[in-house]
């Protein structure tokens, strides 16, 4: 029983000693530093919120509840911008393809014209025009 009283007395004295040391430490620290820490904590509390508050804030508007007009406006602007970018991209692709096809057709026409001209020069006999449909075959 005596050891219980001794243990209780030592714990009580340790608690009193710790409270006195804590008060002494806070009194010895400058008030400017303490005030700065308090304002820092106030700012952090204003900026950051508790995790439970944040989750409640995010869950406040469910999937079925109506959106605010600002949210609707922002989503519409994002959709319009995406549509505009998509339209510009497809227009650019179409223009590039049209230019490619036009160049291919021009090259093919040039090769055909050169081949026809070579054929006409080779088969021309000086008597008739160099057109094939004017040639008479016996």
Please give a structural write-up:
It is found in: Secreted, Extracellular space, Extracellular matrix. Keywords: Coiled coil, Extracellular matrix, Secreted, Signal, Sulfation. It contains four helices and no strands. It is mainly α and 138 residues long. The protein has a domain at 70-137.
Total beta strands: 0
Provide the helix percentage.
over 70%
Query: What count of helical segments does DSSP give?
Result: 4
Distance between the termini: 145 Å
Main sheet, how many strands, which sense, barrel?
none
Low-confidence runs (pLDDT<50, min 5 residues)?
none
Order of helices and strands: HHHH
| Global mean pLDDT | 79
What value does the Rg take, in angstroms?
46 Å
Q: How would you describe the shape?
A: rod-shaped
Strand content bin? under 5%
**Class derived from helix and strand content:** mainly alpha
């Amino acid at each position: 029983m005596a050891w219980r009283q001794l243990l209780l007395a030592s714990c009580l004295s340790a608690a009193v000693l710790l409270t006195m040391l804590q008060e002494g430490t806070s009194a010895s620290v400058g008030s400017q530093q303490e005030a700065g820490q308090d304002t820092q904590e106030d700012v952090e509390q204003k900026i950051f919120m508790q995790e439970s508050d944040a989750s409640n804030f995010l869950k406040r508007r469910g999937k079925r509840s109506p959106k605010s007009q600002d949210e609707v406006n922002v989503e519409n602007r994002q959709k319009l911008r995406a549509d505009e970018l998509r339209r510009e991209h497809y227009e650019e692709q179409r223009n590039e393809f049209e230019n490619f096809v036009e160049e291919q057709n021009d090259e093919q026409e040039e090769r055909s014209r050169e081949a026809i001209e070579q054929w006409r020069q080779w088969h021309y006999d000086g008597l008739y025009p160099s057109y094939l449909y004017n040639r008479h075959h016996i």
